[in-house]
Specification:
It catalyses: ATP + H2O = ADP + phosphate + H(+). With 567 residues, this protein is of the alpha/beta class. The chain is built from 22 helices and 22 strands. It folds into four domains: 202 residues, P-loop containing nucleotide triphosphate hydrolases (Rossmann fold, 3-Layer(aba) Sandwich); 155 residues, Rossmann fold (3-Layer(aba) Sandwich); 61 residues, no CATH class; 120 residues, Alpha-Beta Plaits. The longest helix has 22 residues. The two termini are 47 Å apart.
Length: 567
């Protein structure tokens, strides 16, 4: 397997890849990046979810001229959702390209925002065919400096009736421009487009596995207010597992998650590209012998891992491609044994979930994360089993005499003595745990804080600043959705939002826990970390059930009114 560093990608992009902790390119990335860097046309056949965005974004961004504020890269996508997804990914890869600008153009968005972006000057445009043609007709999108056009999911654009629009746009591009066409299938209409508009293209075909081990039970949990670490902890509490393999995308996350699991008392170790071969072998041997129960791994580090004890595979981070998913879950259900695979999926990753189901030809069932009561029930069952096993396996004569003597001396019933002993045994790990114990050291959930808000008639609000603004294509729903989902906060407690070019301000409850603010700092919206902080010129106000006042800096009682977001 090549490394990203072997592919002649520009240093700022390599830095972004390294920041994220990515270890190795996927097959389509390894095969596409070299010819695209050379300026060759490319015809790629690959399923959704094979890592296509990085396959074209990394080489094309490596060649962008930042001094020329004219569109040099144009990416056509069939839907607005994919356009946003591609734009956010490219913005992330370009985070160390100083002054880089990207515009996302699609129908249903305020065209004045798009016009403002284009007037300011952009290096890359991502959009849907209809809106791109609209801008070409208006003369607001100039393609004189275009170096490359990418057709992403061309067969889907054909299915949606956009193929004529695509050809119209291709005719408007300069002669000699580079063309990269990606399609899951190659119907005759797409093949004709390729023959007419591509010049001696490099052809790449990525075959995805289409079957998984039938003995593996596959489930998914949709990430909501409850955070991943909390969800994983609850799963560890109630699932009957022998050994577990937890997959994350990056070596940075692998190290962090292992540390948090160890802090919670779980026997775990990390396998990533930073682990030496000697330590890897020792870790695998510990897993095989039963001295280790959980391994947190990256995809590269888990290659070739074959341990029959692994009963569960947790996809803590959803993989970028279906091939990787198949490889991951294949680490369980081996040698005729059954296995369990659980996938954590955010709302925005549902598309990948459907791609995985299509590629594997198997449904993945939704699951319910264990509740506080489920955990208590499970601990009680385990405690009872421990008593039964002890009675069957141990010589308890000495202790029977001890209890009998104590009962006579203290004039107590055996029931009282047994209850006291049971309390002592479970004191370090209570049979009925508190919510605080379940959530300790890491994941933030709104818990009692969010519940208490609902009991208050007046909620003091505070202005916060977030580092995402108009130039990033942000909308009110992006901010409301991210904050509400990440800290389990009802949208009614998210107040007035104001947008500026490079940042925005938003009113939130004044007494948010530090853990909530800390968590939101790392949350990304439109490819940007929020980096939330108390807003300059802050001040707060009282609101009925979180409904905002629209007068910044004043604290006053405000009657109920709908939440507004100013663009």
């Amino acid at each position: 397997m090549p490394r990203f560093a072997d592919l002649a990608i520009a240093p700022p992009l390599l830095q972004a890849i390294d920041d994220a902790g990515y270890e190795a390119p996927s097959p389509i990335q390894a095969q596409s990046i070299p010819p695209l860097l050379e300026g060759r046309d490319l015809l790629g056949q690959a399923q959704t979810g094979t890592g296509k965005t990085a396959a074209f974004a990394l080489p094309l961004l490596s060649r962008v001229d930042l001094s020329c504020k004219q569109p040099q890269i144009l990416v056509l996508t069939p839907t607005r959702e994919l356009a946003i997804q591609v734009a956010e990914a490219m913005q992330g890869y370009a985070r160390h390209l100083s002054g880089f600008q990207i515009a996302t153009l699609y129908g249903g968005q305020n065209i004045s925002t798009q016009l403002r972006q284009l007037r300011r000057g952009v290096h890359t445009v991502v959009g849907t065919p209809g809106r791109l043609i609209d801008h070409l007709k208006r003369g607001t999108l100039k393609l004189d400096s275009l170096a490359t056009i990418v057709l992403d999911e061309a067969d889907e654009m054909l299915r949606m009736g956009f193929i004529e629009d695509v050809e119209t746009i291709l005719e408007e591009t300069p002669k000699g421009r580079q063309v990269a066409l990606f399609s899951a299938t190659m119907p005759s209409a797409i093949r004709r487009v390729a023959q007419h508009h591509l010049n001696n293209p490099v052809e790449i075909k990525i075959k995805s596995k289409t079957a998984t081990v039938a003995s593996i039970t596959q489930r998914y949990w949709q990430v909501q207010g409850l955070q991943k670490l909390d969800a994983l902890t609850r799963i560890l509490e109630v699932e009957d597992f022998d050994a577990m393999l937890v997959f994350v995308r990056t070596k940075v996350m692998a190290a962090e998650l292992t540390e948090k699991l160890e802090a919670r008392g779980y026997s775990s170790a990390v396998l990533s590209g930073d682990v030496s071969q000697v330590l890897r072998e020792k870790t695998v041997e510990r897993l095989k012998s039963g001295r280790l129960d959980i391994i947190v791994a990256t995809d590269v580090a888990a290659r070739g891992l074959d341990v029959e004890r692994i009963s569960h595979v947790i996809n803590y981070d959803i993989p970028y491609d279906t091939e990787t998913y198949v490889h991951r879950i294949g680490r369980t259900g081996r040698a005729g044994r059954t296995g369990d695979a659980i996938l954590f999926v955010s709302g925005r990753e549902k598309r990948m979930l459907r791609s995985i189901e299509k590629a594997t030809r198997q449904p993945i069932q939704p699951m319910k994360i264990p509740s506080h009561a489920d955990i208590a029930d499970r601990r009680i069952v385990q405690f009872k089993q421990m008593i039964t096993d002890t009675i069957e396996d141990q010589d308890l004569g000495f202790f029977e005499d001890l209890v009998s003597n104590y009962q006579q001396d203290q004039d107590l019933s055996l029931r009282e003595i047994a209850a006291a002993l049971a309390y002592l045994v479970q004191r370090e790990r209570p049979l009925v745990p508190s919510e605080k114990e379940i959530q300790k050291d890491g994941a933030f959930t709104a818990g009692n804080w969010a519940a208490d808000l609902g009991k208050s008639s007046q909620v003091p609000m505070q202005q916060f600043r977030i580092e995402v603004g108009r130039e990033h294509g942000v909308k009110p729903k992006n901010i409301v959705g991210a904050i509400a989902n990440e800290i389990n906060l009802a949208p009614s407690y998210i107040g007035q939002i104001k947008f500026f070019d490079t940042f925005s301000t938003v009113y939130l409850p004044e007494d948010m826990p530090d853990a909530a603010v800390k968590h939101l700092k790392k949350v990304r919206v439109c490819g940007q970390q929020l980096k939330i902080s108390v807003g300059a010129g802050g001040g707060g106000y009282n609101a009925d059930h979180g409904k905002p006042s629209h007068k910044s800096g004043k604290r006053k009682h405000v009657k109920k009114q709908p939440r507004k977001a100013k663009a």
